[in-house]
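Suppose you are handed only these lines of text.
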Amino acid sequence: MPKFFVERGNIGEDFAFIRGEDANHIAKVLRARIGEQVVICDGEGSDYSCEITEISAGEVKLSINEKIPCNAEPNVNITLFMALPKSDKMDYVIQKAVELGVYKIVPFSSSRCVVKLNGGAEEKKTNRWQKIAHAAAKQSGRGIVPEVCAPITFRELTKRAGDFDLPLLCYECEEDNSLKAVLSEKEFKNLCIVVGPEGGFDRAEVESAISSGFKSVSLGKRILRCETAPGCAICAVLYHTDNM
Ligand code: SAM
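From them, the structure of the protein bound to S-adenosylmethionine can be written out as follows.
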Protein backbone atom coordinates (compact mmCIF):
# COMPACT_ATOMS: atom_id res chain seq x y z
CA MET A 1 0.00 0.00 0.00
CA PRO A 2 1.42 3.47 -0.87
CA LYS A 3 2.40 5.94 1.85
CA PHE A 4 -0.16 8.70 2.50
CA PHE A 5 0.59 12.27 3.54
CA VAL A 6 -1.64 13.29 6.46
CA GLU A 7 -1.97 16.82 7.83
CA ARG A 8 -0.35 17.21 11.24
CA GLY A 9 -3.77 18.14 12.68
CA ASN A 10 -5.13 14.68 11.83
CA ILE A 11 -2.35 12.86 13.69
CA GLY A 12 -2.81 12.36 17.44
CA GLU A 13 -0.72 10.58 20.08
CA ASP A 14 -1.92 7.08 19.22
CA PHE A 15 -4.46 7.51 16.43
CA ALA A 16 -4.75 9.29 13.08
CA PHE A 17 -7.37 10.00 10.42
CA ILE A 18 -7.05 9.85 6.65
CA ARG A 19 -9.84 11.90 5.07
CA GLY A 20 -11.08 12.93 1.64
CA GLU A 21 -9.75 11.53 -1.65
CA ASP A 22 -7.14 9.33 -0.01
CA ALA A 23 -9.75 7.79 2.32
CA ASN A 24 -11.99 6.97 -0.63
CA HIS A 25 -8.99 5.58 -2.54
CA ILE A 26 -8.12 3.27 0.38
CA ALA A 27 -11.71 2.09 0.78
CA LYS A 28 -12.92 1.85 -2.82
CA VAL A 29 -9.83 1.34 -5.00
CA LEU A 30 -7.45 -0.47 -2.69
CA ARG A 31 -10.43 -2.11 -0.91
CA ALA A 32 -8.42 -2.18 2.29
CA ARG A 33 -9.73 -4.04 5.33
CA ILE A 34 -9.73 -3.32 9.06
CA GLY A 35 -6.49 -4.62 10.56
CA GLU A 36 -4.42 -3.85 7.45
CA GLN A 37 -1.13 -1.95 7.89
CA VAL A 38 -0.70 1.58 6.44
CA VAL A 39 2.25 3.97 6.58
CA ILE A 40 1.42 7.66 6.82
CA CYS A 41 3.75 10.69 6.76
CA ASP A 42 3.26 14.09 8.42
CA GLY A 43 5.13 15.91 5.65
CA GLU A 44 7.66 17.12 8.22
CA GLY A 45 10.05 14.16 7.95
CA SER A 46 8.28 11.58 10.16
CA ASP A 47 6.55 8.36 9.11
CA TYR A 48 4.01 6.49 11.24
CA SER A 49 3.31 2.77 10.89
CA CYS A 50 -0.40 2.31 11.54
CA GLU A 51 -3.23 -0.19 11.50
CA ILE A 52 -6.68 0.49 10.06
CA THR A 53 -9.31 0.42 12.84
CA GLU A 54 -12.34 1.96 11.10
CA ILE A 55 -13.38 2.64 7.50
CA SER A 56 -16.35 4.97 6.86
CA ALA A 57 -17.41 7.29 4.05
CA GLY A 58 -14.57 9.70 3.41
CA GLU A 59 -12.66 8.76 6.56
CA VAL A 60 -10.26 5.99 7.59
CA LYS A 61 -9.30 5.79 11.28
CA LEU A 62 -5.89 4.36 12.16
CA SER A 63 -4.19 3.33 15.37
CA ILE A 64 -0.52 4.39 15.42
CA ASN A 65 1.94 1.58 16.19
CA GLU A 66 5.23 3.48 15.79
CA LYS A 67 6.58 6.90 14.80
CA ILE A 68 9.84 6.64 12.80
CA PRO A 69 12.05 9.30 11.16
CA CYS A 70 11.54 9.11 7.39
CA ASN A 71 14.82 7.86 5.89
CA ALA A 72 13.93 8.99 2.36
CA GLU A 73 15.15 12.57 2.77
CA PRO A 74 18.63 13.52 1.45
CA ASN A 75 21.19 14.89 3.93
CA VAL A 76 21.35 18.15 1.94
CA ASN A 77 18.65 20.62 0.92
CA ILE A 78 18.61 21.16 -2.84
CA THR A 79 16.52 24.07 -4.11
CA LEU A 80 15.90 24.10 -7.86
CA PHE A 81 15.35 27.45 -9.58
CA MET A 82 13.86 26.48 -12.96
CA ALA A 83 13.30 28.89 -15.83
CA LEU A 84 9.78 28.67 -17.26
CA PRO A 85 10.03 26.17 -20.15
CA LYS A 86 7.64 25.74 -23.06
CA SER A 87 4.59 23.44 -23.03
CA ASP A 88 4.34 20.94 -20.15
CA LYS A 89 8.05 20.39 -19.58
CA MET A 90 7.78 21.95 -16.11
CA ASP A 91 5.44 19.09 -15.11
CA TYR A 92 8.20 16.63 -16.02
CA VAL A 93 10.95 18.66 -14.34
CA ILE A 94 8.94 18.90 -11.10
CA GLN A 95 8.01 15.22 -11.06
CA LYS A 96 11.61 14.04 -11.59
CA ALA A 97 13.15 16.58 -9.21
CA VAL A 98 10.75 15.49 -6.42
CA GLU A 99 11.41 11.79 -7.05
CA LEU A 100 15.13 12.51 -6.85
CA GLY A 101 14.89 14.40 -3.55
CA VAL A 102 14.66 18.15 -4.25
CA TYR A 103 13.70 20.31 -1.26
CA LYS A 104 11.98 23.22 -3.01
CA ILE A 105 11.27 24.32 -6.60
CA VAL A 106 11.17 27.98 -7.61
CA PRO A 107 10.07 28.73 -11.19
CA PHE A 108 11.44 31.96 -12.66
CA SER A 109 11.15 34.03 -15.82
CA SER A 110 14.29 35.15 -17.66
CA SER A 111 14.97 37.08 -20.86
CA ARG A 112 14.86 34.06 -23.17
CA CYS A 113 11.76 32.43 -21.64
CA VAL A 114 9.09 32.09 -24.32
CA VAL A 115 6.38 31.47 -21.71
CA LYS A 116 5.20 34.57 -19.84
CA LEU A 117 2.92 33.90 -16.86
CA ASN A 118 0.86 36.55 -15.17
CA GLY A 119 -1.99 36.85 -12.67
CA GLY A 120 -4.52 34.01 -12.82
CA ALA A 121 -2.49 31.82 -15.14
CA GLU A 122 0.41 31.95 -12.69
CA GLU A 123 -1.73 30.88 -9.71
CA LYS A 124 -3.46 28.13 -11.71
CA LYS A 125 -0.14 26.73 -12.96
CA THR A 126 1.48 26.89 -9.50
CA ASN A 127 -1.46 24.98 -7.95
CA ARG A 128 -1.19 22.36 -10.68
CA TRP A 129 2.57 22.05 -10.23
CA GLN A 130 2.11 21.67 -6.45
CA LYS A 131 -0.29 18.77 -7.05
CA ILE A 132 2.30 17.12 -9.31
CA ALA A 133 4.89 17.53 -6.54
CA HIS A 134 2.48 16.00 -4.00
CA ALA A 135 1.80 12.98 -6.22
CA ALA A 136 5.52 12.46 -6.92
CA ALA A 137 6.37 12.74 -3.20
CA LYS A 138 3.71 10.13 -2.38
CA GLN A 139 4.86 7.77 -5.15
CA SER A 140 8.54 8.05 -4.23
CA GLY A 141 7.97 7.75 -0.46
CA ARG A 142 9.37 11.18 0.41
CA GLY A 143 9.25 12.54 3.98
CA ILE A 144 8.13 15.97 2.81
CA VAL A 145 6.11 17.40 -0.06
CA PRO A 146 8.53 19.87 -1.69
CA GLU A 147 7.03 23.34 -2.09
CA VAL A 148 6.59 24.68 -5.63
CA CYS A 149 6.75 28.45 -5.22
CA ALA A 150 5.04 31.09 -7.33
CA PRO A 151 7.27 32.22 -10.24
CA ILE A 152 9.78 35.00 -9.58
CA THR A 153 11.76 37.25 -11.92
CA PHE A 154 15.44 36.70 -12.72
CA ARG A 155 16.20 39.93 -10.86
CA GLU A 156 14.51 38.53 -7.71
CA LEU A 157 16.45 35.29 -8.21
CA THR A 158 19.80 37.12 -8.17
CA LYS A 159 18.95 38.45 -4.69
CA ARG A 160 18.61 34.89 -3.30
CA ALA A 161 22.25 33.73 -3.56
CA GLY A 162 22.87 34.56 0.11
CA ASP A 163 20.18 32.05 1.16
CA PHE A 164 22.47 29.16 0.21
CA ASP A 165 25.85 27.67 1.23
CA LEU A 166 26.48 26.96 -2.45
CA PRO A 167 24.38 28.87 -5.05
CA LEU A 168 25.06 27.24 -8.45
CA LEU A 169 23.97 28.46 -11.88
CA CYS A 170 24.20 25.84 -14.63
CA TYR A 171 25.62 27.67 -17.64
CA GLU A 172 25.97 25.96 -20.99
CA CYS A 173 28.90 28.21 -21.98
CA GLU A 174 30.87 27.73 -18.77
CA GLU A 175 34.37 26.58 -19.68
CA ASP A 176 36.29 26.60 -16.38
CA ASN A 177 34.14 25.43 -13.46
CA SER A 178 33.02 21.82 -13.66
CA LEU A 179 30.21 20.83 -11.28
CA LYS A 180 32.45 18.14 -9.81
CA ALA A 181 35.22 20.62 -9.00
CA VAL A 182 32.84 23.18 -7.47
CA LEU A 183 31.10 20.58 -5.29
CA SER A 184 34.48 19.46 -3.98
CA GLU A 185 35.55 22.98 -2.99
CA LYS A 186 33.52 23.27 0.23
CA GLU A 187 31.13 21.51 2.59
CA PHE A 188 27.48 22.47 2.11
CA LYS A 189 24.08 21.58 3.52
CA ASN A 190 21.87 23.97 1.62
CA LEU A 191 22.55 24.50 -2.07
CA CYS A 192 20.61 25.72 -5.07
CA ILE A 193 20.74 24.85 -8.73
CA VAL A 194 19.61 27.36 -11.38
CA VAL A 195 18.65 26.05 -14.82
CA GLY A 196 17.78 28.20 -17.81
CA PRO A 197 15.08 27.86 -20.48
CA GLU A 198 15.35 26.30 -23.95
CA GLY A 199 17.12 29.41 -25.21
CA GLY A 200 19.63 29.40 -22.35
CA PHE A 201 20.94 32.44 -20.48
CA ASP A 202 22.01 35.83 -21.79
CA ARG A 203 25.66 36.58 -21.00
CA ALA A 204 24.46 39.66 -19.11
CA GLU A 205 22.18 37.51 -16.92
CA VAL A 206 25.05 35.18 -16.06
CA GLU A 207 27.32 38.11 -15.20
CA SER A 208 24.62 39.63 -12.99
CA ALA A 209 24.12 36.29 -11.20
CA ILE A 210 27.87 35.81 -10.69
CA SER A 211 28.24 39.33 -9.29
CA SER A 212 25.35 38.51 -6.91
CA GLY A 213 27.22 35.49 -5.54
CA PHE A 214 26.17 32.61 -7.82
CA LYS A 215 28.84 30.24 -9.12
CA SER A 216 28.54 29.33 -12.81
CA VAL A 217 29.10 25.61 -13.42
CA SER A 218 29.31 23.32 -16.41
CA LEU A 219 27.38 20.03 -16.63
CA GLY A 220 29.80 18.77 -19.32
CA LYS A 221 30.59 19.37 -22.97
CA ARG A 222 27.15 18.35 -24.21
CA ILE A 223 24.21 20.75 -24.39
CA LEU A 224 21.42 19.23 -22.31
CA ARG A 225 17.76 20.02 -22.84
CA CYS A 226 16.32 22.31 -20.17
CA GLU A 227 14.26 19.39 -18.89
CA THR A 228 17.34 17.11 -18.69
CA ALA A 229 19.71 19.49 -16.90
CA PRO A 230 17.94 19.66 -13.49
CA GLY A 231 17.90 15.88 -12.98
CA CYS A 232 21.52 15.66 -14.12
CA ALA A 233 22.68 18.30 -11.64
CA ILE A 234 20.56 16.93 -8.77
CA CYS A 235 21.91 13.40 -9.32
CA ALA A 236 25.49 14.67 -9.28
CA VAL A 237 24.89 16.48 -5.98
CA LEU A 238 23.20 13.41 -4.45
CA TYR A 239 26.04 11.14 -5.57
CA HIS A 240 28.67 13.57 -4.27
CA THR A 241 26.93 13.75 -0.86
CA ASP A 242 26.49 9.95 -0.49
CA ASN A 243 22.74 10.04 -0.96
CA MET A 244 22.88 7.33 -3.64
N1 SAM B 1 20.32 27.68 -25.88
C1 SAM B 1 21.49 27.03 -25.32
C2 SAM B 1 22.44 26.60 -26.41
O1 SAM B 1 21.95 26.18 -27.47
O2 SAM B 1 23.63 26.64 -26.14
C3 SAM B 1 21.08 25.77 -24.55
C4 SAM B 1 20.30 26.02 -23.30
S1 SAM B 1 19.95 24.49 -22.52
C5 SAM B 1 18.79 23.85 -23.61
C6 SAM B 1 18.93 24.99 -21.15
C7 SAM B 1 19.64 25.13 -19.82
O3 SAM B 1 20.14 23.87 -19.40
C8 SAM B 1 20.82 26.03 -19.84
O4 SAM B 1 20.46 27.38 -19.70
C9 SAM B 1 21.61 25.53 -18.64
O5 SAM B 1 21.04 26.07 -17.45
C10 SAM B 1 21.38 24.04 -18.70
N2 SAM B 1 22.43 23.34 -19.42
C11 SAM B 1 22.29 22.60 -20.53
N3 SAM B 1 23.47 22.05 -20.88
C12 SAM B 1 24.39 22.47 -19.97
C13 SAM B 1 25.78 22.25 -19.78
N4 SAM B 1 26.49 21.45 -20.59
N5 SAM B 1 26.39 22.84 -18.73
C14 SAM B 1 25.70 23.64 -17.89
N6 SAM B 1 24.37 23.88 -18.00
C15 SAM B 1 23.73 23.29 -19.04
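What can we learn from it? The pocket of S-adenosylmethionine is lined by residues 170-172, 174, 195-196, 198-201, 218-220, 222-226, 229 (CB under 6 Å). The mean pLDDT is 96.
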